[in-house]
Amino acid sequence: MFDALNSPSGGGGSIGFLLLKLQPLALRMEPDHHARAHIHIDYGRVRHTASFAVDTGERLVGQLPRKYDKKIAGWIEKNRDVLQSAWDELKAGEDPRERILVNLKA
């Protein structure tokens, strides 16, 4: 399930949005002070349980059962170009949701 209508995140007026919902995971992208493109993973009701790099699919930080690493890395690999474009636009203050989200593969 892609969420192109998610409201902007609370931090500093920047836009963040849900990329994919795979129970019990939610994959989100929110620009922050980090230069490296990454996605945040929510696990169940716990927000920002882990982060994964867009360029490699590797887990950067977080406490998430390892059984999800391969699934998340595979999804990132299939969508790497789209995710990097979304990151670049978010960092530039643009809103890529309408154009980018329709190109993501489940």
Question: Could you give a short description of this structure?
Answer:
The protein has 106 residues and is α+β, with helices and mostly antiparallel strands. The protein has helices at residues 69-91, 97-101; strands at residues 17-22, 25-29, 38-43, 46-53, 59-62.
State the strand order across the main sheet: 1-2-3-4-5
The end-to-end span amounts to 8 Å
Order of helices and strands: EEEEEHH
Q: What spatial form do the alpha-carbon principal axes imply?
A: globular
The proportion of residues in beta strands is 25-35%
- Mean pLDDT figure: 81
* Helix content class: 25-40%
Low-confidence stretches: 1-13
Main sheet specs: 5 strands, antiparallel
Radius of gyration, CA atoms, in whole angstroms: 12 Å
Tell me the number of strands: 5
- The helix tally amounts to 2
- Indicate the structural class: alpha+beta
Count up the domains. Answer: 1
